[in-house]
Amino acid sequence: MKAKKVLVWLCAAAMLVSAAGCGSPAGSTGSDAAGGQGVQEAEGTAKEDLPLAKYPEEVTVHLGGGMNLNAKIPEGMTYEDNTFLDMLKEDLNINVVYDWVASSSDYDEKMNLCIGSNTIPELMNVNAEQYRALLKYDLIQPIGSYYEDYASDKLKSYVESGGEALQKDICNEDGEMMAIPAPNITAGGVNEMWIRQDWLDNLGLEAPRTWDEMVAVAEAFVKEDPDGNGENDTIGILGPANSDYVNGNGGNRYGLDPLFSAFQSYPKYWMKDDSGNVVYGSITEETKVALEKVAGLYADGLIDPEILVRNDSSEPLLAGKVGIFFGPWWCGYTVGDAILAQEADWQAYFTPLAEDGKFYTHMAEPTTKYVVASKECKNPEAAFKIINYLIEYEQGWVDSGVTSGLSTSDLYPLYNVYDNANEIEVSWDCLKKYLAGEIGIDDVDYSTHKLLKSDMEAITKLKKEPYDDFSLEYWNFEDEDLAKTNLPRLVSIMVGDAPLVNEEYVPIYNSYDGRTKTMDSKWANLKKLEEETFAKIITGKVGIDAFDSFVEEWKASGGDEITKEVQEELDAQQ
Question: Would you say the pTM of this structure is higher than 0.85?
Answer without folding.
Answer: yes
